[in-house]
Amino acid sequence: DVKVTQSSRYLVKRTGEKVFLECVQDMDHENMFWYRQDPGLGLRLIYFSYDVKMKEKGDIPEGYSVSREKKERFSLILESASTNQTSMYLCASIQGISPGELFFGEGSRLTVL
Amino acid sequence: AQRVTQPEKLLSVFKGAPVELKCNYSYSGSPELFWYVQYSRQRLQLLLRHISRESIKGFTADLNKGETSFHLKKPFAQEEDSAMYYCALKVGNTDKLIFGTGTRLQVFP
């Protein structure tokens, strides 16, 4: 079974703090994604990566950055957290041979006070 | 512009009733569409994809290019179908998916 693991399930941070969200997949997938999930807005793509050290902006990259130093790990960074970044963050990966089948992590619920 | 629209935030039905979750898309190329489902306290997961023309858990979805729709249907809803459903569009030659805003399906006993 493909496993996508998000290390932090729940985080509470203060405005202005730097936040790291970590995601690891164990199936040697090439492509990895970060989405945020908000009620009434669905899933919106923040960033994705199709190879180590390669990244592309999604639809809402402002206020976020990412890091992919190793194939299995994709990190989402909030340089200076703000209250409007309170959300559920979902990491996903895909091999590419099964079109459209993203494998999602359980999610990281971030609250910024 | 590429867009996926799910007009209903909430759909409530009784067990045994037919269900149709609506999805419309806007895309200039040849679309590839998917339905994802998230059950309570579970991960988001793929339910079905239009190219497979499959029926999963009794659900089917037909791509209608004329109406730019990909509605999800089930003839007889079950309580265990209660979940959040997202329609998604694959963009171009990438693995990037654009998701709709989701529809919560509630099936009452």
Task: Explain what the structure shows.
The complex is a heterodimer of chains A (113) and B (109). Chain A is built from no helices and twelve strands. Chain A has strands spanning 4-6, 10-13, 19-21, 23-25, 31-38, 42-51, 54-57, 65-70, 73-78, 87-94, 103-104, 108-112. In chain A, the strands form three sheets. In chain A, strands 2, 5, 6, 7, 10, 11 and 12 form a seven-stranded mixed beta sheet that branches. Chain A has a three-stranded antiparallel beta sheet with strand order 3-9-8, with no helix packed on it. Chain A has a two-stranded antiparallel sheet with strand order 1-4. In chain A, a hairpin with an 8-residue loop joins β10 (87-94) and β11 (103-104). Helix content of chain B is 0%, strand content 44%. In chain B, strands 2, 5, 6, 9, 10 and 11 form a six-stranded mixed beta sheet that branches. Chain B has a three-stranded antiparallel beta sheet with strand order 3-8-7, with no helix packed on it. Chain B has a two-stranded antiparallel ribbon with strand order 1-4. Chain B is globular, with a radius of gyration of 13 Å. Classes of the chains: A mainly beta (113), B mainly beta (109). Chains A and B meet through β5, β6 and β10 of A and β5, β6, β9 and β10 of B.
Briefly summarize what is shown.
The complex is a heterodimer of chains A (113) and B (109). With 113 residues, chain A is an all-beta fold.
Helix content of chain B: under 10%
- Give average pLDDT of chain A, whole number: 93
How would you sum up the global shape of chain A?
A: globular
Identify the quaternary structure here.
heterodimer
Strand residues, percent of chain B = 35-45%
Segments of chain B where pLDDT lies below 50 for 5+ residues?
A: none
Mean pLDDT of chain B: 93
Uncertain stretches of 5 or more adjacent residues of chain A: none
Number of strands of chain B: 11
- Percent helix range of chain A: under 10%
